[in-house]
Design goal:
Largest sheet: none
Number of strands: 0
Distance between the termini: 10 Å
Number of helices: 6
Strand content: under 5%
Number of domains: 1
Helix content: over 70%
Order of helices and strands: HHHHHH
Radius of gyration: 19 Å
């Protein structure tokens, strides 16, 4: 493997997070429309809420990891930061609040909420299949 092939493969794998986020948007919109058509607006609305929480959760995790990595590399050892901890806890509070709101409106909406919360799993599976086929076809 020459240097250009290594650079190409690094550039390809460095874009995985962006592709996962894009897959979440595409899958979220298409699954939300499908849920509306087949199950009604309540489950579609719950799914959309769960998908939005999942997307914000992924974005928040990215920011937390970046902040912790930056703190670790700047000082040589990990330091706690109040804002990082607050962001971490706000994610779970947001999930609990939306889950309670959806459960109080419609018990069937919980299914849509959980389906939306599992959207990152589908996006990561999509990315894994894409990376597998790209590696097989292009030898990355």
């Amino acid at each position: 493997m020459d240097l250009t092939a290594i650079d190409r493969s690094e550039a390809f794998y460095a874009g995985a997070l962006r592709r996962i986020q894009l897959a979440m948007v595409v899958l979220g919109i298409s699954a939300g429309v499908t849920a509306w058509i087949h199950f009604g607006w309540r489950i579609a609305f719950s799914f959309t809420g769960g998908a939005c929480i999942a997307y914000l959760n992924l974005h928040s995790l990215e920011r937390i990891v970046d902040a912790l990595a930056e703190r670790t590399t700047q000082s040589g050892h990990a330091q706690s930061s109040r804002m990082v901890v607050v962001r971490f806890l706000v994610r779970y509070f947001l999930m609990a609040a939306v889950g309670y709101a959806i459960l109080s409106v419609s018990r069937m909406g919980v299914y849509g909420l959980f389906a939306g919360l599992f959207l990152p799993v589908a996006a990561i599976m999509w990315e894994a299949v894409y990376e597998l086929f790209t590696a097989l076809l292009h030898g990355l």
